[in-house]
Amino acid sequence: MSRFSDETRATIERLRRRDHERVSEAGRTKLLLHDEPRPCAVVLFHGLSASPTQFVRFAHDLHERGHNVVVPRLPRHGHRDRLSTALAHLTADDLRVFARESTHLARGLGERVVVAGFSLGGLLATWIAENEPVERAVAIAPFFGVSWIPNRFMKGIAHAMLRVPNSFQWWDPLQRERQQPPHGYPRYATHALAQSYLLARDVMDAAERGIAARRLIFVTNAREAAVNNRAVARLEARLRGADPKRLEHVVLTGIPFSHDIIEPLRHPEIAARVYPRLLQLIDGADA
What we know:
Layout: H1 6-17, E1 30-32, E2 38-45, H2 56-64, E3 68-71, H3 92-107, E4 110-118, H4 120-131, E5 136-140, H5 151-163, E6 168-170, E7 187-189, H6 190-205, E8 216-221, H7 229-242, E9 247-252, H8 268-283
Parallel strand pairs: 2-3, 2-4, 4-5, 5-8, 8-9
Antiparallel strand pairs: 1-3, 6-7
C-alpha cells in the first residue's frame, strides 16, 4: 500500500478513470510514481492534439532521478480514433480546471511541485506560474499566438473563429492522416485553437499582478516556425515589470526552423540536441 494520502489516492484513481475506452494506450495519462511522496513532484503537459507519450522520455528520466512524475492527458485528447472530433469541444475553462487539478494532485505527490509543458502545455505551465505557488514552471515554445499573425489581431480572430462552426484543419495537408507521430491527432480544431488563445489573453492580461511560482522559465527557439515569440517577449516584459527576479528566458539557437523541438518521432535530431538542456531546466540539476 502506498504512503500517499487518501485524498491523493482518490485523485489518482479519478485521473485514471478519465481514460475511457475510446482513449488509446499511448494517449492515456502516465503516472510514474514511487511508493511515497518525494521531495519533488513533476507535472508535464503535452501540446495541442498530441498525447502524454510526447513526454515519456522526460518522465522516465525524471522518475529515475527520484521524482514522482505525472503526464496527464489534456481534455479531449488521446482518442484511439485519430480523426476524432472531440477536440472541437475543448474550452478555456476545461484547461483552467485541468491545470488546477493537476497541480493539486502534484502537491500530494511531492513537497515541491515543478510543472513544465510544450506549446499549449507551455501556456498551461505559464498560467499555473501566475496562479499557483509552485517551485518552478518551465514553458517550452509556449503558445501565445501564431507566428505569422500580429498578436494585436489574434483576439478578434479568435472571437470570429468561435462565431462560425468549427472546422478541422490538417497539420500537414500533404501527409494528412499519415502524419507522424501516430500517438497524436493529425488535425486541429479551429475552436480549440481559439479557446487556447482566449486563455493566453487571460495570462497576458494578468501579467501585471506578477507570478505566484518561485521561478518561471521561458524556453523559445530562435527560429520558431509556428508560435509567436514576439508575444512571449511582450509577456516576459510585463512580468519583469512586476517581479523581475523570478524570471528566466532561455533562447535556443542553432536549431533548424521548427516548432516541435521535443518529439523524437518527428524531428529526432532536434529532440536529441535540446533534450539535455530541457531536462536540466525541468529538473533544476545537471543533466
